[in-house]
Every structure is written in structure tokens, then in C-alpha cells.
Amino acid sequence: MTNWNVILNIAKTHLLTKIKQTATAALGVTFGIGAYITLVSFMTGLNSMLDDLILNQTPHIHIYNEIEPSKKQPVATYDAFKNSFNVVHSIKPKFSQKKIHNALPIINYLKKDENVKGAIPQIKSSIFYIAGPIELGGNLTGIQPLDEAKLFNFNDYVVEGSTQKLHNTENGILLGAGVAKKMSLTVGDRVQISTIKGDIFPLKIVGIYQSGIADIDAIQSFANLKTVQRILGEAENYITDINVKLHNIDVALPMAQQIEQQFNLTAIDINTANAQFETGTTIRNLITYAVSVTLLIVAGFGIYNILNMLIYEKMNDIAILKATGFSGKDVQYIFMSQAIIIGLVGGLIGLLIGLIFTNIINTIPFETEALPTVETYPINFNGWFYIIGITFAMISTFLAGYLPSKKAKKIDPVTIIRGQ
Amino acid sequence: MSTVLEAKHINKYFKKPVLFHVLKDINFKINKGEFTSIMGKSGCGKSTLLYILSTMDTDYEGELYLNNELVTNNTRDQLSYIRNKHIGFVFQFHYLLSEFSVLENVMLPAKKLGEKSFEEIEHDAMQKLSILHIDHLAKKRASRISGGEKQRVAIARALINNPSIIMGDEPTGNLDSHNSDNVFNIFKQLSDEQGLSLLIVTHDEDFAKRTNRIITMEDGKIIS
């Protein structure tokens, strides 16, 4: 039979009379948990920001026509040479059209698939920006501005003007920030572009685009799909790329493979294209947890140490408690409950400190060219971190209390009493 | 007259540093209300015997009965309960929990037993303290009172659960003659007025002579 009132009362008295030691032990836990919450919130915040940077503007499946040599050279189809060893020198890529054949029906087909959140066409073309006698090479991509904004957060990268304006302006262009700087152009100005064939078109700048990656900003611009089709002198079904966004990113790979087979096109899924980002995220998480666990283990040793000392100091008390009828288990519970109280109080204060710290970090300005949408340090506020934190605090203090309390349980009162 | 405590053929060996036969076939009974003292030279095994009788030491051969019930081979938890309910202890050193008040020290075994409400326990504890004339110390910290007073607090704590027997291991061994007398008078009074059984190990011949019965030990045997 265990009388918890008595046990907790004794534990409380022990803790309160040794308030400095108790506070030190609890502070160890507080520090560990506080650091864990801060670290993990900050790190995962940073992770998801970096992931978003890439993932949000990257299509889950990118479909296009790859220019490549035929896998099966014509000689292989000729029966007379079937059993011979053929050598073909100077293989050239197969001549094929850049555009996706039957692009519009494919888009309609994809949009009907229940896994697909959206499929939108793009036209990629190489152009020159003309400033007097200077010609700057660049890319002009034809897009459907509103769909891009909806599916790929395109608005985040338009630093001046808007996608809506582009949608409304037939001869509009969203100029890359780098290009605009080089040519000293701002919104409202006109820029002349020339196609590879040499046709020159004036376009009105309705916005500035900044991806954060300088090399891209120095060449990339966007215009309406129809504008680009007109500049290139192509029909309305001329589409070079289809970007697909899915509801669930995990089906990207099988779906990309299926599309490749079905339509005889190249389809790249996001995981294949951005494998290194997954690795970076995993490693950052690993570091965060390694540091936090180390901190908590150190705190655990602190508690272990202090309880050990306490038990040596309280040898006589333990003997007298046992002599007056407290069982070994009761004595063990007394010291266990001390450890758990230290862990709980220290852990809860740690959570609070973590919350305060992350809130402070969340307000620190963090402005960088590379990330136009970010204004303060990113913090991921997630309830799970708090649950994991307090659970870990309880487990580590439980273990730190278990070993010394087991020793207290085994103390033989006769040896202590007779040893005086 | 009913028997409180009975020892049958108790043998005990110390195994370290060499095998040593400490207690040799101990047989005796203590009746209800008897005030008994155990005398003997140092090392004759009287304290060892007392700790076996107190159920704290379980490493012995033979049989031990408390209130005619066999307690040998009971589990440790059962023994804890028996100590709590039926046996009161007074040691040579005072062994109070120094961070608790005098009253809390006295109340602790009763709280552990948990048979009475907090108010009843507090009332009982105050009553025991006033029997021993130390009720004015109730709220003081146990570390702030004198040696004689501590020993009386220890006696009050031994009495709190109205045990069947009080055991003492040289309870006056660390006290001056005035306080020794005091403690003896308290024991005597408890024995006479409340019919309490007492078993006290002592070196003090004067103390022993005034008890009802003296058990003398020599070389691990009872000789008288």
C-alpha cells in the first residue's frame, strides 16, 4: 500500500529545504528543453522556408520534349544488317519539333485526373533584349499569369507590379530584376525584344520579377502565353512545356513515368529534380536533434548527480523511514517523485522559455536579396515539438532518478543504524 | 498472560570477514506489559538480536512470533507493515528527520499507516507529546531542539501507532544522567500506566536493575 500524500510531502520538503540544488537541477532541464524548442522551431522554420523556395515554384511534374538522338538508329531497323555489328559515327540529335504535340488535349486530360491539382502550359523561348546597339541574351517564358500565381506562388516573386496587370496587358512583360538593372528600366517603361529570327517587338514593362537567384534574374522574363505565341509567329496550340501540380507529391514519380510512356514525352518529377534538398533537410534535422539530445543528457546527469548526493546526505533519514515502517518501494518513490518534479517543473519552464525565445526570434528582421518574401527569421510553431520536448524531459529525468532511487531502495537500515 | 514476542531457536552467522556464529540457539518470550532489558558486554550479540527481533534483519535461522503470529519469511513489504503497526523504535542516536517539525516527525508513521484522518493523527501526536511534556516544542524544527528533547520526540514517534512493543537500542546511551533518568521514568510510566511491553538493550546497569526482567547475554547465548 502506498500513501502518496506522505511520500509527496516528504519529497516536497526535501526539495524545498535544498532549494538551491533543486533549482540547479531544474535549470539544467529548463536549459535543455528551452534550447531544444528554440533550435527545433528555428531549424525546421528555416528548412521549410528553403524547401518552399524551391518546391513552391517548381512543378511537381515537368513535361517537355527533350531534344536527343534517337535511341534506335535507322540502321538497326534494316533487316539485312540485323545480325551484323553496326557502327554509326557522328550521331546527331533527331530533328523534332520543340512544341508538345497535342498539348491542349493532354492538358485537358491531366486536369481530369483526380491526383492533379492543376496543369498549366508554358512556352519557353530564347530572345534578345535590345538596348540601342546592345543585345542581351535572355529567356522569355509565356505563361498564364493568374494560374501561375495560384498554383506556384508566382506572386511572391513579382517585386513590383503584379501578375494581374500582366494578365490585363496584352503587350506586357514581367522583366527580370537583373535585366531591368542592367538596362536601367522600371515599371511603365518599354523594352524592345528581338526573336532569334530577328523580328523586333516593343513590350511594356508591367512588373519586375525577382527569383532570388541572380543568374536567373539576369536573363528571365515573363509574358502572356498568347503574346509569346504571337512574337514567335506560332499558332495557339504551340506549347513547349506543361507544368503539373499534384495534391500529393508522393505520386509524382509513378505519374511522371506513366506520362512518359503514354505520350512519348519527357516528364521529370520533383524528387528526381531536387534530390539534394531532401538530403539537406534530413541533415539539418539530424543536427538539431543531436544537439538537443546532448543537452538533455547533460541535464539528466545533473539530476542524477544531485539525487545521488541527496541520498548520501539522507542515509539516516532513509534508515529511520525504513525502521518506522516505510517499505523500500516507498523510499524509492520518494526519490523518484523528486526527480519527476524537477523534470516536470524544469521542463515546463523550458517550454515557456522556448516559446518566448522563438517569439523573439520571429520578430528579428531578416531581409535578404535572395528571399524577397521573407522579412523576419522563420520560425515553425508546432505543438508537436512541445509534446516531444516535455516527453523527453520526463523520460530523461525518470531515468536519472531511477538509478539513485533504486540504490535508496536497497539501503539496509540495520547497517546505517549500527554503523553510527 | 499473553505473549507479545517469542523467539524460537534463533541462530545467526556473520559471513564476513570470516564465518562467525553470533547468536546461538536463542529462545525466549516476552509477555504483554513486561518491561525487559537485555544486558551484556559489547560484541555479545545483543544488538544483533534486537535487530532480528525488530524484523529489520531477516538473515537468520529459527522462528520469530509477534502476537503469536509467525513473521519469519514474510515479504519485505509485509515486514514494513508489521514494523509500522506493531513495533516502536527508540535508538541511541535520535534519528529524527531534521527538516521536519517535531509534530511532523511524530505524525509520520501514523500517516504512513493511513488508518486515521489527518486531524485524528494530529490530535494523537499532540497527546503523545503532552504525555512526554514536550508539547510546547511541537512546531519547532527537529534540528533545533536539545538531545534529551530529541530522544523524547523519538519515543513519542515510537508510540504514535500504539504498538504492541517498544524496542530500544541503548536509548539512554547518549544522554547525561538527568536525561537518562527522565527517559527511564517515561518508559516505566508507560509500562505501568498503559501496560506497554518494552524491550530495551542497554549497557547501563542502574537502568537495567530497575526493569521487571533482565536478560543477560554472553557470547551469543542467553545465560540468565
TrEMBL record, chain A:
<dbReference type="GO" id="GO:0098797">
    <property type="term" value="C:plasma membrane protein complex"/>
</dbReference>
<feature type="transmembrane region" description="Helical">
    <location>
        <begin position="333"/>
        <end position="361"/>
    </location>
</feature>
<feature type="transmembrane region" description="Helical">
    <location>
        <begin position="381"/>
        <end position="403"/>
    </location>
</feature>
<protein>
    <submittedName>
        <fullName>Lipoprotein-releasing system permease protein</fullName>
    </submittedName>
</protein>
<keyword id="KW-0812">Transmembrane</keyword>
<keyword id="KW-0449">Lipoprotein</keyword>
<dbReference type="Pfam" id="PF12704">
    <property type="entry name" value="MacB_PCD"/>
</dbReference>
<comment type="similarity">
    <text>Belongs to the ABC-4 integral membrane protein family. LolC/E subfamily.</text>
</comment>
<dbReference type="InterPro" id="IPR003838">
    <property type="entry name" value="ABC3_permease_C"/>
</dbReference>
<dbReference type="Pfam" id="PF02687">
    <property type="entry name" value="FtsX"/>
</dbReference>
<feature type="domain" description="MacB-like periplasmic core">
    <location>
        <begin position="22"/>
        <end position="260"/>
    </location>
</feature>
<keyword id="KW-1003">Cell membrane</keyword>
<feature type="transmembrane region" description="Helical">
    <location>
        <begin position="286"/>
        <end position="312"/>
    </location>
</feature>
<dbReference type="InterPro" id="IPR025857">
    <property type="entry name" value="MacB_PCD"/>
</dbReference>
<dbReference type="InterPro" id="IPR051447">
    <property type="entry name" value="Lipoprotein-release_system"/>
</dbReference>
<keyword id="KW-1133">Transmembrane helix</keyword>
<keyword id="KW-0472">Membrane</keyword>
<dbReference type="GO" id="GO:0044874">
    <property type="term" value="P:lipoprotein localization to outer membrane"/>
</dbReference>
<feature type="domain" description="ABC3 transporter permease C-terminal">
    <location>
        <begin position="290"/>
        <end position="413"/>
    </location>
</feature>
From TrEMBL, chain B:
<dbReference type="InterPro" id="IPR027417">
    <property type="entry name" value="P-loop_NTPase"/>
</dbReference>
<dbReference type="GO" id="GO:0016887">
    <property type="term" value="F:ATP hydrolysis activity"/>
</dbReference>
<dbReference type="InterPro" id="IPR017911">
    <property type="entry name" value="MacB-like_ATP-bd"/>
</dbReference>
<dbReference type="Pfam" id="PF00005">
    <property type="entry name" value="ABC_tran"/>
</dbReference>
<dbReference type="InterPro" id="IPR003593">
    <property type="entry name" value="AAA+_ATPase"/>
</dbReference>
<dbReference type="GO" id="GO:0005524">
    <property type="term" value="F:ATP binding"/>
</dbReference>
<dbReference type="InterPro" id="IPR003439">
    <property type="entry name" value="ABC_transporter-like_ATP-bd"/>
</dbReference>
<keyword id="KW-1278">Translocase</keyword>
<dbReference type="GO" id="GO:0098796">
    <property type="term" value="C:membrane protein complex"/>
</dbReference>
<keyword id="KW-0813">Transport</keyword>
<comment type="similarity">
    <text>Belongs to the ABC transporter superfamily. Macrolide exporter (TC 3.A.1.122) family.</text>
</comment>
<feature type="domain" description="ABC transporter">
    <location>
        <begin position="5"/>
        <end position="223"/>
    </location>
</feature>
<dbReference type="GO" id="GO:0022857">
    <property type="term" value="F:transmembrane transporter activity"/>
</dbReference>
<keyword id="KW-0067">ATP-binding</keyword>
<protein>
    <submittedName>
        <fullName>Lipoprotein-releasing system ATP-binding protein</fullName>
    </submittedName>
</protein>
<keyword id="KW-0547">Nucleotide-binding</keyword>
<keyword id="KW-0449">Lipoprotein</keyword>
<dbReference type="InterPro" id="IPR017871">
    <property type="entry name" value="ABC_transporter-like_CS"/>
</dbReference>
